[in-house]
Amino acid sequence: MTKKSMRRRTALTVVALLAVMGVFLVKLVDIQVVNAAELNKKSTNGRSVTQTIAGVRGDIVDANGVTLADSVLRWDFSVSPYVANLEKKSELTRDTNAIGKATGQGGAAVMKIITDSLAGNPKSLYASVVKGVDVTTLNKLNALNIPWLYPTRQQARTYPDGAVAGNLVGFVGSDGKAQAGLELAQNACLSGTNGEQVYQRGADSVAIPGSTVVTKKAKDGGEVVLTIDSDLEWFAQQKLAEAVKQLHGNWGIVTVMEAKTGKLKAVAEYPSVDPNNVGATQADDRGSRAFTSPFEPGSTFKALTAATLLDQKLATPASRVLAPFHFESGQGASLGDAFYHDPWRLTLTGVLMMSSNTGISILGRNLPLKTHYDYLKKFGIGTPTAVDFPAESGGILHPYQEWGDQTKYATLFGQGVSATAIQTVSAYQALANNGVRLPVQLVEGCRQADGTMTEKPSTKGTQVVSKASANTTVNMMESVVTGGELSDKLTIPGYRVAAKTGTAQQSNGEGGYKSTYIVSVTGIAPADNPQYVVSVNIANPTTITTSAAAAPLFKTIMSQVLKAYRVKPSTTPSPNLPAYY
To answer: In whole angstroms, what is the distance from residue 495 CA to residue 561 CA?
Structure first.
């Protein structure tokens, strides 16, 4: 081979090498420069795993900060069966036994989970081992350092006081979603915002230690602060349960409200749900009848009628009426008192004391229908309260244009109209507060992480009747306690108490009445400086079938309220307005 040929071959080889190197260089530039970001993203995405970081649901607390509902952390554990199966059989047996010991399942059960998953998919990367373990079990499992065992944080809802205020607090489902009560009504405040974290996994699908990066922080939910006093709520629930059982009644409600604020301090019900064990309670007893189940209130509404008559200058406390046992209007209305009696010579005060249906009907016959309707609306009847409790009822108040003659008179003594227990208490709060009805409050607001309180309820009141009309009505109601048939059961030593009793048959929804009835006592104390309104309602008591069934419990609850809140005793005597003429 000539030197010329060798030089030519060498040159061609160099050119070829340069060409090859050029191709590699171009490809290298393409990989490391031009498409580096995209290729890196693809590579990372191929081994990246995104996990949700749950925002913790906020607590529900009472007025004193006592926790009624909270969230606790729990952990679910899963395994990668494919990776686990790469271990030696002895090592896999050792690890599954260790997991089973920590969870209480036993090693055989854990091994079966893995083998069953592999039977369905030989390359299975997921199988659930155990759900909802506490932090103690979490620490035991983490200490095993098993690379194919993964924890996932979850939340569980607990209710430390059980059935105390369970009717109000409500509950969440097994999926953590709000289902009833304030859990549902205040879900926007309580719900947290989920975050995200990403970790990298190796070729064996096992998480690479130290690769976890939080890409979006979770935000915990707010704290719902109630007006309820859980101690008083517990006391009221206990005493109510005792009374309903003793009377062989179906259910009962006790409500306590601050007269000057409209804040509910207790809404006790029996039966009531324990949110920790919802299934143990009948479906009808899982909500709050106090908000959702209106009933014809009966004679407790006579106080509202009396206040209206005073406000319209259609009567005074001394207005006289000859109240017969039976009354017919001449226009179709026919009504009577609870028991036969010779005509009573009563004043308006005496009508309240004796709870005469005929007496209030005769005194109220000149009250225009529209005027009566408008006053009932101002008292809050026919409209749900500001609480906006789930499935809350506004009661039933038909337009006055639809009232027949019977309804005209029946509404004067609390029939032909229905209201919830909360609405009745709210109406009495107006009487106790110089005629100003304030929005009912069950929730103080939503407390944020920085301590600020949002979603505060309105405190703007409505002047229903004049101050004079309200105070005079309260004075007349004192006659029920000082001179009525239940005086001994309602009197609280040291305090002036104003109250009104009621026994009302319940409508069958077809213009008639069922054999069921509700007995009630609603009252105010101290009458000379009203601080609290207490109401007791018991459905279908059988051992005592009149409002006498509710009176002892009213006295017990009101006495406890006055004691617990250290209310000063009355300093002036009752006015003792004339009841007869």
So the answer is: 12
Q: What pLDDT shows up at residue 39? A: 47
Instruction: Find residue 462's DSSP bridge partners.
Output: 437
Cis peptide preceding 439, ω within 30 of 0: no
Q: What is the pLDDT of residue 407?
A: 96
CB contact at 8 A, 214 and 517: no
In one-letter notation, the amino acid at residue 338 is: A
Alpha helices in 104-216 (DSSP H): 107-120, 135-142, 166-169, 181-185, 187-190
- Tell me how far apart the alpha carbons of residues 113 and 118 are, in angstroms, rounded to a whole number: 9
Q: Residue 271's CB: how many other CB atoms inside 10 A?
A: 18
Rounded CA gap, 270 and 246, in Å? 13
3-state secondary structure of 154: strand
Place of tokens 């300093």: 571
Residues of the chain with pLDDT under 70: 1-46, 203-207, 508-514
- 490 touches 499 (CB < 8 A): yes
> Residue 389's pLDDT is what?
98
How many Cβ atoms are within 10 Å of 64's Cβ, its own excluded?
A: 11
Q: Residue 263 has what DSSP assignment?
A: B
Q: How far apart are CA 402 and CA 337, in angstroms?
A: 25
Q: Contact, 182 vs 188, CB < 8 A?
A: no
209: preceding bond cis by omega (within 30 degrees): no
Please tell me the distance from the alpha carbon of residue 380 to that of residue 368, in angstroms, as a whole number.
19
Q: Are 263 and 64 in contact (CB under 8 A)?
A: no
For residues 494 and 574, the answer to whether their CB atoms sit within 8 Å is no
R_g over Cα of the chain:
36
Distance of CA 462 to the CA centre of its chain: 25
100/102 Cα distance (integer angstroms): 5
- Cβ atoms of 543 and 519 within 8 Å: the answer is no
Listed in sequence order, the DSSP H helices in 403-529 are 405-410, 421-432, 467-482, 487-490
Cβ neighbours of residue 453 closer than 8 Å, sequence gap 6 or more:
225, 444, 445, 446, 447
- Residue 292 CA to residue 288 CA, distance in Å, equals 6
pLDDT at position 206: 65
Rounded Cα–Cα distance for residues 399 and 385 (Å): 19
* pLDDT attached to residue 210: 75
Q: In terms of DSSP H, where are the helices of 104-186?
A: 107-120, 135-142, 166-169, 181-185
Sign (positive or negative) of CA dihedral 94, 99, 102, 106:
negative
Residue with tokens 């319940």: 506
pLDDT at 525: 98
How much is the pLDDT for 10?
65
Best CA proximity match to 419, nearest among 335, 306, 506, 305? 506
Copy the structure tokens of residue 202: 């190796």
Pairing outcome for strands 127-133 and 171-172: unpaired
Cα distance between residue 37 and residue 440, in whole Å: 60
Distance set, CA 221 to CA 169, 185, 404, 443 (Å): 16, 14, 52, 16
- Token pair 């108040």: residue: 397
* Cβ-Cβ contacts under 8 Å for 497 (sequence gap 6 or more): 478, 481, 490, 491, 523, 524, 525, 526, 527, 558
Q: Are 57 and 176 in contact (CB under 8 A)?
A: yes
